[in-house]
Every structure is written in structure tokens, then in C-alpha cells.
Design a protein that fits this description.
Length: about 270
Amino acid sequence: MKKIYLYLSILLLAVLASCSPKGPYAITNKVYKDKTKGYMAKIKTQLPDSLKDSTGMPIPSEWVGTVNFGIRKANYVIIHYTAQDSVQQTLKTFTIASTQVSAHYVIAKNGKVFHMVNDYLRANHAGVGKWGSVTDMNSCSLGIEIDNNGNEPFTDAQIKSLLLLLADLKKNYNIPQANFIGHQDFAPKRKPDPGPLFPWKTLAEHGFGYWSDDILELAPDNFDYTIALKLIGYDTSDINATIVAFKRHFVQTDISPALTQLDLNILYNVYKKY
């Protein structure tokens, strides 16, 4: 009987905590605020660490504040799916220090947008990969995670919210149309998201990324698809993985590592837009 009372007491405390006016993420919100205060202290640092020459003699240094500077802004948007079962599971994953993963935004199936990292701060969402000459994508991009397990269609509410969010980000940070890409594009050797079910054509129609034209010109006989993929931005060190990533994004009806004539025509059409 005592065990039952103890269990009920613990359950009641948990329910009360979740109903707290501060919300279930009060603790993680406090950690976020404390960490941003630490970053502010670093920004205010006005002198570098002591500089010394090869003999150990200090090199004279002085702080002179310029009037010409600003905050660094993102130049890319990377779109992901969460590969989890619910938005609550993803929020939990992103609020546990041991996971070391995060994103600037998470979009639930009902269209609700969760903002988790300030746009001017670096989130841990892209990981190891390459797009053009960019290898540290976390430092120059915004990450958007969409609640989706990878095997289901994205909801209309999610896409509506995503388009509104992307419009704001594009306007606020002057992000080029070509710089809205998927995790699969940046990391073709590791990641499949947001996958072939994601409506890239709809995004392109709104100015976020590119899509092939309805009428396709035949790719010339001397068309080098490897060079074309590289010029778009893809890492071609594993060409089969790159082809699959390209087809997940731009073909979507077939994601095999083989290029048909139609695939080549699509690639030829798309690469000319970059």
C-alpha cells in the first residue's frame, strides 16, 4: 500500500510540474539564457590572448574599436525531417545535452513552429558534409526540422507554416534562392532527409530552391553529369551517393544510383540554373 501511495505522489508531482506556469521546458530555457549570457561575455572581449614571438617575447597589441561591423547572418537554410515519432520526442531530444543535436526551428504536424535557437547563433543540425566549398554548414546556415518519420507525407499545415517561415528568413537575411537545400544534399553519404516525399517543387515555385522546367531539353552527348553535380554544389567523392541524393531532391520517383536519360535531362536543366 505504501508503494502505491509513493507512486501516486510521484505521478502527481510530475503532472504538477508539467502544468507549471513556466512550462515543461523552464529548466532548459534557463540553461539557454545562461549560455547566451556566456556568449555575450565572449563578444565583449576586446583584447586577444597574449601574442608572443618565437623567443617568447610579447607582441604589443591594443584594442581599437571600429564603427563598421554587424552581426553575422545565415546564408543557407537546411531542411530536415526529424526521423522520430512525434514533435514531443524531438523537443526532448533537442533539450538533452548528451544528444549534442539541435535546430533553429521545429515544425509540428499541426503547423506549430517551435523556435529553439536564435537565428544569429549556431545550431548543431548539419554535421559532417560538403556543399560547394562549405564544410562547416552549421556556422553559416539555419536548420529547420519537420516532424516526420521519413515514411509519411508532410502535412499541408506543415508546408504552409514552412513557406511562411522561409519567406521571412529569405527576406530578413537576403538568402539566395539556390541556398535552400536539404540535409541529403549537404551530406549525401550520411543522410536521406527530407527525402523523396518532400515537396521541393512547391518550394521552388515560391522561390526557395530550384526545380526542373516542364519542358526539358535533351542533355547533349558530351554532358558530364559529375561536373554538373559538382557545379550545383554536391560533393561527388562518392558519386553513387550523390546521384541518389540528387534524385531524392529533383526526381523523387526513382532514387536508384543509376541515371536514366530522363534523369540526365533533369540534371542538365537544373544545373543551368545555378
